[in-house]
What we know:
Elements: H1 2-39, E1 44-45, E2 53-54, E3 61-64, E4 67-70, H2 88-99, E5 100-107, E6 110-120, H3 124-134, E7 138-145, E8 151-159, H4 162-175, H5 182-194, H6 216-220, H7 225-236, E9 238-242, E10 251-259, H8 262-271, E11 279-280, E12 285-290, H9 293-305, H10 313-325, H11 329-334
Antiparallel strand pairs: 1-2, 3-4, 5-6, 6-8, 7-8, 9-10, 10-12, 11-12
Helix pairs in contact: 2-7, 4-5
Pfam families: LAGLIDADG_1 (PF00961)
Transmembrane segments: 12-31
Protein name: Homing endonuclease LAGLIDADG domain-containing protein
Amino acid sequence: NLEDTYYSNMMLKKSVLCWNIFMLLIDYYFIKLMILNKNNMVKMSINKKQSAVIKNKSLIIQRTNSNYLLNNTIIYDKNHKLNTDNPIYAYIVGLIEGDGWITITKKGKYLLYEMGIELNNRDIQLLHKIKNILGVGTIITRKRKLKNGTYNEMVIYRIRNKDHLKNIIIPIFDKYNMLTNKQYDYLFFRKYLLNNVKYYEELPLYIRPKYLMYTVNDIINKDYLPYWLVGFIEAEGSFSVYKPTKMNSKVASFEISQTNSFELMEAIKIYLKVSQNIYTDKYNNSRMMTKKISDICNIINFLQNNPVKLLGYKSLQYNLFLKTLRTMPNYMKYMDIPQKY
């Protein structure tokens, strides 16, 4: 009858409509998958004395004056041999020397090998950038109780996988030696990791020496020093502008320090062309601090012309520092303060 025929036609149209919608969804997700795969395609080329170049939608590496510029992306690819030529790795070593560690600790009867960095939670994006560059590791957050009873939100990036430590961390730290006495930690760590020592009872007692293994000239002559230094400034440097009492004008300053590292501070002072002397306190903490206009300008020139950039909260601090300097006539007379970093 007509009613049955009408009902059958209506159901047929609904079925056809549902099928068409289903096919459109299949086509949509298929096209989306193709675009995603295309954007994430990785192409690596390795030439003599050149870095591996990996291209994807989040990566830009350019070569300018034999230097490589990195825009926050993955360098390591598990399907290829790690190429350590990119100076961003020297930056990472410098960062770890300031705020990180390379250690062997006891875990029951076994040994736990670990490389890690701990920063204030405001720098969580920086640690995600480092993880993205290395391609491995985990990030966790924790609360650290301060002496006044309040808590600081901290973020930790660490690598514990032995294969990742052997195949990624060891090649980087072999090429870009630590310049503080943490280098002793690394050599101890490296020896027992590569010898596959597993048990705590097999590990000898270790006490880190207080003296550096490098002289001032050794450090200055390291070809990766400028890139390493940006990472070290990221961890230990401080830019500030303040108004001293009994003065009408503001004063800008830069400060960096490290314990048991007088030779390193002296080398940094010479490299940055800073005129102020290094001060070492009773705890053997050596500090380089300058308020001299010519010194500040030399430090600005170093950071502006370096192909490796500050990547974390210190970059924001530095940009605010520049912004304030542009309002200070004494500095504007001495040099053109950059408009951006």
